[in-house]
Design goal:
By secondary structure, this protein is mostly helical. The protein has 23 helices and no strands. Helix content is 73%, strand content 0%. The radius of gyration is 24 Å and the shape is globular.
């Protein structure tokens, strides 16, 4: 245990030294970071490079992106890509690559948020990806952005996605304008079912929802199934709802890929069927316990009731990609829950590097530094926490 404490303290010291060096000697930090990278020491390089991406030229940024993707550090590669894309005020190839990487790694909301600001300038593939990601997470994009994205491609699948997204918002008249003879029948039936459902034409809607399920597009089938369950539940057809639920639960021989099971749980959750979503996540935890989406969904109970196994699953994620955003957030939260301030500092430092949108680590890092009798540094991170939109009431009064 003493050895572990000394090792953790050494990690904290090294992290602090690297950050301090990077802050005070940008040019020297970049040279050190690029040297580490050239030697294949990606983890050693990034604390020197990421704080100073603004000093790198496009060729250097592309080089770093390539090294990270080749070494399967997707989260870190996305950080660099997002910065690279932000250099211009218009849609750049890097913007498209960032959206593609986010989509490929299942970060649909990140993909949407990266591409939506450039909806009127997207290439066809990015327009398709934006509308697909938005459909998977509930179709909440502003209708104007959906129209702009649809205008960037005449492909039937892009037009169909625009129609699906608008129909989820109840904008059926405009949704129909994107349908044509090339629209797949299940998509057309789903949109018609939603419109009939909104008009309280229950029996007709049911028939069209069932026809929509006759699709070879697995993700669409999953969304349609969640919507049919909602339709049965709202219209009081408990018998049919229970039948469909038994089908969605699967059985011991169920071979549904975990990503589709996660999508179904998500779709039920956003339709306010939290009990059913929780059941599916719990089942997934039994078969695929190191899935980040599952750990997020069940975190509060796992950290209390299955702490030892949870730590093992977090370590598995870190061993797979030590720079992964989710893995480091889980490790930070686990350390916080077990009052391991040295580990909080270490993993929060990683989160600050690899999770550019995260606010939580600033507060956790500040509290841990305060517990470690480093009030001056704690004050800095409390300030950054508030600057990034954190709750000021969570900051100790004497640190404001």
């Amino acid at each position: 245990m003493a050895v572990k404490r000394r090792f953790s303290a050494l990690l904290v010291f090294c992290l602090g030294a690297a950050s301090s060096f990077a802050a005070t000697s940008p040019d020297s930090a970049l040279r050190v970071g690029l040297n580490w990278l050239a030697r294949g020491k990606t983890e050693s390089a990034l604390p020197y490079l990421i704080p100073h991406l603004a000093l790198l030229n496009p060729m250097q940024l592309e080089y770093i992106e390539g090294r990270l993707e080749n070494s399967r550090h997707a989260a870190a590669a996305l950080v660099v890509l997002r910065y690279h894309a932000s250099i211009g005020k218009t849609f750049l190839p890097e913007s498209g690559r960032a959206g593609a990487l986010a989509f490929r790694t299942g970060q649909f909301q990140v993909c949407r948020d990266l591409l939506a600001p450039f909806a009127g300038d997207l290439d066809s593939a990015s327009a398709h990806r934006l509308l697909l990601a938005n459909f998977y997470i509930g179709g909440k994009l502003d209708p104007g952005i959906i129209r702009k994205a649809a205008s960037r491609s005449g492909l039937p699948e892009v037009q169909a996605l625009a129609s699906l997204n608008l129909s989820l918002q109840g904008n059926f008249k405009e949704a129909r304008s994107y349908l044509d003879g090339q629209t797949p029948p299940p998509v057309r039936n789903f949109i018609h079912a939603l419109e009939l459902d909104a008009g309280d034409k229950t029996d007709e809607a049911t028939d069209y929802f069932k026809q929509a399920l006759d699709s070879k597009w697995p993700e669409f089938h999953t969304v349609a199934m969640a919507e049919l369950f909602k339709h049965y539940a709202i219209t009081g057809n408990r018998y049919k709802a229970d039948q469909l639920w038994e089908l969605m639960k699967g059985g011991e021989e169920d071979e549904t890929p975990p990503a589709l099971q996660e999508l179904l749980a998500w779709q039920l959750g956003i339709r306010n069927y939290e009990k059913q979503a929780h059941y599916l996540y719990t089942n997934l935890y039994g078969t695929h316990p190191d899935r980040p989406v599952v750990l997020k969904a069940l975190w509060n109970e796992l950290v209390m009731d299955d702490s030892t196994s949870l730590r093992t699953h977090i370590q598995s994620l870190l061993s797979r990609d030590s720079l992964d955003c989710d893995a480091n957030i889980f490790a930070m939260r686990y350390a916080r829950a077990h009052h391991s301030n040295l580990e909080v500092v270490y993993f929060a430092g990683n989160v600050l590097l690899y999770c550019p949108d995260a606010v939580e680590p600033y507060l956790d890092l500040a509290n841990a530094l305060l517990e470690l009798s480093r009030p001056a540094e704690a004050r800095v991170y409390f300030g950054k926490y508030v600057e990034r939109g954190g709750d000021r009431n969570k900051v100790p009064t004497y640190m404001r």
